[in-house]
């Protein structure tokens, strides 16, 4: 286990039972030495992730919390930090998505998506800020999406919520910058996680990969490395920024494969 810069710090990672969140929690604990809250609504998954970290020599505590239950969230956060201590690092990773045509999008799922993807991160940041300001140091990393920058078919609620999360990142960043707290976002491209597979379907992965200059899906490790950077002292002068970790997807614009290859000769 690392005894590096975060050895005396506490990190809270939401949606940490699987996928990106689990990898972020693992690397914060094992590479950076942080004590990590593994927060998720999936009690068994959170416990499994925390146990795996502890067995590998890290420090982790599973916390069961449903971010969709907005009315109960402030009390749940107070109870959690009264027991385990307030977080120095917050990674708002949890998110939900469904692919539904915009004209047919149901308002109940719209409201749930906004609660989990936007309102809950706001409440988590508000909860952590007094402690961070008192210490004069804090790191907040919001996991947004390229869907918050460019529209995608079927992503009305998800894309809108992630655009809002990017705006929320900038708003908090400018208001807390003088206190030693940085607030940044990461916009993952297509990442090979259970949620992405459920939304895109395995049959569509090759078509998605064709739109990515690196021609592959990203991995949870790709995102975790970016989180570790934004949570580190190396990023002291970076705040209010959204970092795309997407294999070049947002930069590509109109990407035409084989554009510069000679055209096939016409038959005589």
Automatic annotation (TrEMBL):
Residues 9-189 form the Ketoreductase domain. It holds the Pfam family adh_short_C2. Gene3D superfamilies: NAD(P)-binding Rossmann-like Domain (3.40.50.720). PROSITE patterns: ADH_SHORT. Belongs to the short-chain dehydrogenases/reductases (SDR) family. This is SDR family NAD(P)-dependent oxidoreductase.
